Every structure is written in structure tokens, then in C-alpha cells.
Amino acid sequence: EEGKIAVIPNFLPQNEVNLLRADAQDLWDQGRFSTDALAGYGSTGKFDPTKDRSVLRLPQWKNESLGNYSNRQRFGNLMANVRSELAYNLNRPNLDKGLATTKYGNGSTEISYTRFGKGAFLKRHVGEFVECRI
Fold first, then answer.
1. Residue 114: which of 96, 129, 95 has the closest Cα?
2. CA separation (Å) from 92 to 55, 70, 84, 106?
3. pTM for this model (two decimals)
């Protein structure tokens, strides 16, 4: 339905989900995540996990020497295929063209890991609900 979120149960096989989660946890444990700058208090450095999120910035996501890069690439390739299918089936040929489809991570205008603290409010941080929770 137009304007609604598409939910596809089991979109990724559980083993792929597990690999992405393990990669995210490993990168978190290595201190690779940064406080998101969307918070109004972000410049003060007063991070509150119940109000804000941490993100794996795009240069780390694209860095092949960090974590399970091959799995992140596999996921990016899958999303590139989804984008191409949508471009074709929705008759939007420009959807999968241009620098934005590769600049921010293979397959998407932006792919990264996001970590919300317990009690964090997703709506505070996301202008468009386009996150894929795994």
C-alpha cells in the first residue's frame, strides 16, 4: 500500500542475521560506533543511551579491513538487487542509478549499523522509517 512500511518476515535467512549481529557486536566491542549527531546535546558529549543512538559510521561500514566485511558486502548486494527490482517493477528506472547507490555503501543510499540503548525512542532519530531491524 502506498506510503506504508513493507514488512517481509524472514527476509534474511537466520544465519545471515546472526552473521550481521555478530559483526555489529564485534565492531561495538572494538569501539567503532559513534554517538549520533542528531541529538540536540550531541556536541556536548553527554550521551544518554535512553535518548540517543550510536552508529557505525559509513567509512567503517565500507572498510574491508574491519569486522565481517564480506557479509556486509553480501547484504549490500542483496539490497542493490532489491533496489533494481523495485526500479523495474515500479517503473522508476532512476531508482537504482547514480552516485547515491554506491557512495554510502553498496546497494543503498545509506547502510550502517545502529545501536539503540534500552528505552531509546526510535521516532526521535528517524525522519523516515526505513530501518531494517535484525
1. 129
2. 30, 29, 9, 19
3. 0.74
